[in-house]
Amino acid sequence: MAGGPSKEMLAEIASRPGRDTLISSAVKYVFIALSLGFLAALLFAPLATVFITALSKGWEMYFESFKDEDTLAAIKLTLTVAAIVVPTNTIFGIAAAWAIAKFEFRGKSFLITLIDLPIAVSPVISGLVYVLLFGAQGWFGLWLQERDISIIFAVPGIVLATMFVTFPYVARELIPLMQQLGNDEEEAAITLGAGGLMTFFHVTLPKIRWGLVYGVILCNARAMGEFGAVSVVSGHVRGLTTTMPLHVEILYNEYNFVGAFAVASLLTVLAVLTLIIKSLVEMKRK
Amino acid sequence: MSITLDQVTKRYQGSPVVNDVSLEVGEGEFYVLLGPSGSGKSTLLRAIAGLTGVDHGRIALHGNDVTHVSARQRGVGLVFQNYALFRHMTVGENIEFALKVRRMKAAERRERRKELLRLVALEGMDDRLPTQLSGGQQQRVAVARALAHKPPVLLLDEPFGALDAKIREELRRTIRQVQRELKITTVLVTHDQEEAFAMADRIGVMNLGRLLESGRPDELYARPATRFVATFLGAANLLLARQTEQGIRFGAAPVNARRVEKLEGGREQEVVAVLRPEEVELAPTRDNLRTNFIANGIVEEQVFTGAFERMRVRMADGAANAHIASPNTNGGNGSAALLDVTRTQHEQRLFPLALGQSVAIGVRRIHVLPTPLSSYTAYGSDEASCERLSQHPFLVELASRMKTRIIKRSEAPLVACDAPASAPVSGVAVIAAGQKTAEQLQWLLQNGAGEVLVLPAHSSAPQRVLIHWADDSARRSTLAVAASLLRHVAAEAVYVGILPEGSGGESQRPFGVRTLLDARSEAQAVHGLEMRTELRFGAAADELQRQLTESQDPMLILGVSDPAQLRGTFGALFTSGSTYPMMIVYRPSKDSEGAVE
């Protein structure tokens, strides 16, 4: 018989002690232990500290700190910013992903690079760009001042900076997905008589929904947690232009540890919630 | 007519992917577009559906011009290779989609859905999701969905591509059944000739963006007009032969093939013959053959494939030189004279064969292609120039696409053009463009050449081929050459009609236009060539020259009935040393030779 190992040889291979398997499983456990230990030291410990400190004076003091007007204003501002930024970036993200995935045009790779820019650039720089543009000494500063429009050190600036930083999340999630799914279903819908809107809402959107939800969740998490860019443009006006991350810093600097960590714990809860929803979405996607 | 395509052209980055396709599909007909990948068949289908716009031409569905109507309004039923079902909708929702768009009442929708599911044999599957179905079932749903809104035509784009053989056959049967039951005009695109044979009422074979031939499967198989169709539809041996008064001759052996169509002119000439593997008879000796003997041979390869035995036989004798098409050799030469043969079980029992055994080869039936371009002979004054010319990229490409060979022949008289050639010219003569092109052309024509290809040293494959003939007696043969050449070149064909300027040139316009239309319809009807037409006024050579310099990557096909015309009327074309390929077609006018049609 030509080709292939003999029967005896196959039996011999099958009866070998699993030396290879032993080593590889040892390697597996070492790596798992390593990464778990690393995570425990770097992630779980600080997380635990946040909650322990927040509750160090008991539940009463914990809830008391949320009754502070400035804290409530910070929570409100954060939610407002997220409420504006997330839908806007969702719409623009879909538009950008659609353009990139479905059409061929000049400057396509340039557009992809531009979308990635906010991830590459330090958030502080993103904030500074807006100060440079709209600040008192900025390019449009005088023009804005004359018309009594304030962008920097006000809510519009915070919204703009957050939008800039969180723009890539939806688009980045959708581009590979849309490229992979192709155009056939849309074309089928069109030949069946569906118009543009109907095709989008009944065919495209359901097709990309899980990817979209995933992108929106990431975008939202970043929008609520953004510190650097917002810190530059906000001006830290208490009760007016402080978002939750900024407010945590202010409280901490005032040695109000319980207050600071209480707000921080709320942010953490929001983040953990986001992660839970994210994993649920991932399970659903499969 | 259900679907009418009129000179449909689609360009992609300048070069045509669908090239002047005209086609009519009748009511209730099942038409199969067959071609290799990249032949433009899917693009054509998408153009009919309206998903791809066309650059030129007209598309009509049931008599209504829909060229500029959107895909949505055309509402054809389209089935994709990868099903393209709406994955988040159930089978029922998928099928009802088109009806929902049309705001049909729920009760009626349900009724129609039930009917369609019965049609594709998927009753009771309404609530399944596409992912819960097998590939074959998904494609059935896709067919039902495409039929829901009672589309004017059904288009299928490689619908069985992603399925395995067993399911493919089953689905084929279902689709054919559905099509017969609904009597819906259907166009199916495929690269699988077996599939085409199994389903089609008519087949259209596409290559390089052109619709080469269109006809009933059995007709196309028995009497192909082109090399491509002959070799793409089933297996075929292409042989060079000489057509003489007595019949077809391979090398030294005359074959008395009665059913050979007479070629034009009746002169003895080189032709391309199609020999199907199953039409070959093998016998121990020449005397045992019951059919016409063509050569002796040796069995070189033998494969058992179940119902048939497939073998390759190396031809000996002079006939070895006749074989031109071999898949492994580029153009081929005498050493690759392997003949593909298939034999039935019955034949095998009558005459068992072993490798290396010598046999006598006979042919039961032979078909001669009506192409005037048989083989190429590169002429030069010495060996080196022959060699250089035979390596010309355009010539090599042309020969390999035509599955023919390039012979090299050095002829010293080519320099002075005084002495006669050492052997008569057969097939297409090829010369390099130069100062003495006109003299060399005349010399070749006097030595029996009917077609001469003039190639400049640097020329790329043409994009635009201009066709012109000096007078009406050259029309027919020029069109035949143009049609044959253009099947192997992805270029647009334009016939340029030229009327003399002045002396009431304008008043001759109606006459000129009629000549153009006649030429176009003859090209289409007789040679299957789609071409545009343009009418010019002025001196023929000047007008052609102007047209050629204006086009990018042009080529000229010029028909003459008198060698003197090359130096007279068209002299200006040869003085400058051309930068584009030229094909000169020469047929002596009928009255001067007295030949019969």
UniProtKB/TrEMBL annotation, chain A:
Membrane-spanning residues: 29-56, 77-100, 120-142, 149-168, 257-277
Entry-linked InterPro entries: CysW_permease, MetI-like, MetI-like_sf, Sulph_transpt2
Quaternary organization: The complex is composed of two ATP-binding proteins (CysA), two transmembrane proteins (CysT and CysW) and a solute-binding protein (CysP).
Taxonomic path: Bacteria, Pseudomonadati, Pseudomonadota, Gammaproteobacteria, Steroidobacterales
Molecular function terms, GO-annotated: ABC-type sulfate transporter activity
Domain ABC transmembrane type-1 stretches: 75-282
Annotated NCBIfam families: 3a0106s02, permease_CysW
Keyword Ribonucleoprotein: no
Function: Part of the ABC transporter complex CysAWTP (TC 3.A.1.6.1) involved in sulfate/thiosulfate import. Probably responsible for the translocation of the substrate across the membrane.
Species the sequence originates in: Steroidobacter agaridevorans
UniProt-listed PANTHER family: SULFATE TRANSPORT SYSTEM PERMEASE PROTEIN (PTHR30406), SULFATE TRANSPORT SYSTEM PERMEASE PROTEIN CYSW (PTHR30406:SF1)
GO cellular component, one term: plasma membrane
Keyword terms, alphabetized: Membrane, Sulfate transport, Transmembrane, Transmembrane helix, Transport
Name used for this protein in its record: Sulfate ABC transporter permease subunit CysW
Membrane topology listed for this record: Multi-pass membrane protein
Gene3D superfamilies, sorted: MetI-like (1.10.3720.10)
Predominant place of localization: membrane
Pfam (any one): BPD_transp_1
Annotated localization: Cell membrane
